[in-house]
Amino acid sequence: MSASKPSSPVLPVAEAADIDAAVRLPVLVLLAFAILWLLTASALGLVAAIKLTRPDFLASCEWLTFGRVYPAALNALAYGWGVSAGLAVALWLMARLSRAVLPGGGLLVVAAVCWNVGVKLGILGILAGWSNSVPWLEMPRQVMPFLLVAYVCMAAWVVGALRAGSSPRLYVSQWWVLAALFWLPWLLTAAGAMLFFAPVRGTVQSVVAAWYAHGLLALWFAPLGLGLVYYLLPKLLGKPIRAYYLAPFGFWFYALFSAWAGAARLADGPVPAWTQAAGAIASFMLLLPVAVIAVNLFGSFLGGGLAALGRGVVLRFAAVAALFFVLSTLLYVAMALPGVAAITRLTWFAAASDYAVIYGVFSFAVFGAVYYLAPRLVGREWPFASLIRAHFWLALAGLVLAGVSLSLGGLQQGRELTNAKIPFADVTQHTLPYLQAATLAGALLLLGHLAFAVNFVKLVLCPRHRAASAAAPVPASLLAAPELELEVHAS
Amino acid sequence: MSSIPSSLGPRLESAAASDDSIQRVHAGLLGQKPEPEPGGYALAPLALLGLMSALILGCCIFFVRNRGGFDPLVYNGRIDPKSAANTSAALTPEKIIANGKAIYGLSCIQCHGPEGKGQPSLFPPLAGSDWANGSEDRVIRILLHGLKDPIKVKTVDSTLDFASSNKMPSLLAPPYGYSDAKISFVLTYVRQAFGNNAPPITAEKVTAVREEIAAHKGEFTQADLLAVP
Amino acid sequence: MNRATLIFLGAFLVLTLSWGGLLLSNEQGYGALTPYFDDNESKAYPALVPGLAARGALVYADLGCAYCHTQQVRGGELSADLARHWGDRVSYGRDYIRNPRVLLGDLRVGQDLRNFGARAPAAATLYLHLYDPAAVVPGSTMPPHPFLFEQHAISGQPSPLALKVGGVAPGTELVPTERAEALVAYLLSLKDGYDFPEESRKNTPPPPPKEKAGGKKEIAAPAAAPKPEATKK
């Protein structure tokens, strides 16, 4: 860490532009795929949500029966949108923070195409009836090795950025991104092998599935989201992370306990009691890292940071992601308490906390990052400010509406399930208003994503939109790297 | 540097810090000790340490109470398998009857019939029979070693005599080879089915009788049986 | 760059630890659980799954039934699974060892199906339920599965499985496909009737300390009663 300090505090403009130029093609290609998947996932999800309350909707189409369209939507969200967008943003972030001018982005584009073809085959497989029915691992096992290879090729590029870079330091964002990139293939290999290629027997399968499901959410989506938030906050606020010396504790404790917390998903189920208890205590221990991370992230907003929320939408996306990280982790902690688990497990409440991670934490952080990085990659500003604002508010409204309605509906469902006097059919009937609200939320999300997609397409494809608009031309230097010295806060 | 306009709004957000400065400043902060509070101590690490200790303690207690003895077959952690092991294995009366019925259907029904009525002049009835409802010692002996020679059976409404042409085989011998428990199940079933209402027979009682008559060879006769109480 | 290596090693170690601690240890602990042979009944439990039902399990997976239906009767003090008659006892790990793919399920939009075979209606009702759930349970939100049935001309004797629903053209009948028959066979095969003695012993709370009547106790109670109370069926 004792590398010689650069004499100039400001990063030379040319270098940032060079870094961005080197990753421009792969990042934009990955983002384009990701946005296509996001639209697909929101549309499929909306169909699934409608089917929950109106079972006759598209009922005669076997490919779109609920049991297929719902996992297809989740897989499109997780692997289509999640992995493509996550890798795109991770690649840019790693190149920037490592100060690496990456060569050979073309190969990465090939890997990205392979990955997306694999996901497409997998999702068609689910819709056609080759689903495994294991949550988050539904894609037919034949595409899994293919996906794994494509993923490793892409992730190796991101790690390569670290090696090729000239920066002597590692920032906290890089820890989170590096670890997440490594955890996903580990999880996928182990779970795929133990479930599909050399299947274990009995409910050991359920332990594997719970370990994977929680790992995907807590060791891939949440860390990537956190890595972005840790980067965006000082970047936009101009202030360092509060109590940064605690950040390593947050990282290691979170990793250590999240890896075990999946077993809490099996509370009261037919798996050994000690396994359930181990999952529960790992979840309780998550209070420790979440406290550290909350101090780190929210501490940055102290002293005028809140006012900055009004200025830019990137910061707002990042702030919502930070908030939902804390919230969803606290939900996992609460759901590990035996009395709470008995009510919330196997209800919409548990599902809502998973959606909160994948959408509230990860997707919001990625949205924020894309709004920051895409204009810099392309060298133009976003065409429609109104669509950006619309996206933020629609996404936030959809997230909150879905979260609140599914949590409340899930709580009621859980309370009624534990009361045998209420007939089961009534329990399901009573959740319908909440599911209708969640359907509305799905529609809001889809609208928001459309706004995002339109803006992105226009940004990338229409170089002359600025001439048409009345806005003043943007100075080239501003586009390239209007970057300042981070002020060391005193207090 | 402060001349960067923030008026561009969301269309192009301006950065407030360069990547290099973010890394440099934070690298310095990483090794930095927390600033002490007015009292001379740093609050955040202390609070964190306290939280950690409390969590570890709570989690240890929770785990010890819910670990279910690390037994992979214990699903409810709140039950200690050691103390639960003292409770007797659940052989409910329904279960005994069901087992007995299954054995009856397998080995007895061919001669004694589905209703326990036997067959006239060939196989004695069990329904209402004084033998089936009578002495435990006698019925157990019949099942253990079999029965030969004529026998007189009283039922509720008649008295029947059976010739010696058919021998009842021993249920200990092949092809049956039944355990004491199984013999007790089928006996309990027979004594409580077909309108019979005699007390059940335990596996321990069967074991006791089997040991008592170990020296006896071949089937019992009516005379042998009437000699025991 | 040294720190990056450290983070890789640490990340690897952390996940490997949980893999060993949760997955490998459970695989060692009860991954080789065998069926229990009941000497008294001369039968092994859990029973073998018949071939048609085993194929039905694949249909169950490909249609994604597990997204709305769980297959686990849960214990715990608050759980009402036993009171809802979803099973005579909680599910044990041994119940699942004959299932090639264990689908416990995460969400109870529909009822638990672990013991559905023990309480299932007649097969004809079940077919109708699959075809049009709302016709059997008014207001049901279960998706209809018309694609599991096919309409064809009656040749010779009408099929005994033909659905009795309106809207079928005269001279034709609506019969379940092979997949529907497999699925129904699977659903009817779902029952964990046998109470394994070892699991039963280890998971039945000891009677004296706390006598909070739960659903589970009611089953254990008669065992302690003297046998003369045995009644015939």
What does this structure look like?
The complex is a heterotrimer of chains A (491), B (229) and C (233). Chain A starts with 12 loop residues before the first helix and ends in an 11-residue tail after the last helix. Chain A is built from 17 helices and no strands. In chain A, helix 1 runs parallel beside helix 3, helix 1 runs antiparallel to helix 13 and helix 6 runs antiparallel to helix 11. Chain A has one domain: Up-down Bundle (Cytochrome C Oxidase, Chain A). Chain B is rod-shaped, with a radius of gyration of 40 Å. In chain B, helix 4 crosses helix 7 and helix 7 packs across helix 8. Chain B has a two-stranded antiparallel ribbon with strand order 1-2. Chain B is mainly alpha-helical and 229 residues long. Chain C has two domains: 27 residues; 158 residues, Cytochrome Bc1 Complex, Chain D, domain 2 (Orthogonal Bundle), CATH 1.10.760. Helices cover 37% and strands 7% of the residues of chain C. Chain C has a two-stranded antiparallel sheet. In chain C, strands 3-4 form a two-stranded antiparallel ribbon. In chain C, a hairpin with a 4-residue loop joins strand 1 and strand 2. In chain C, helix 2 crosses helix 6 and helix 4 packs across helix 6. Chain C starts with a helix and ends in a 9-residue tail after the last helix. The relative contact order of chain C is 0.14. At the A-B interface, helix 6, helix 7, helix 8, helix 9 and helix 11 of A face helix 1 and helix 2 of B.
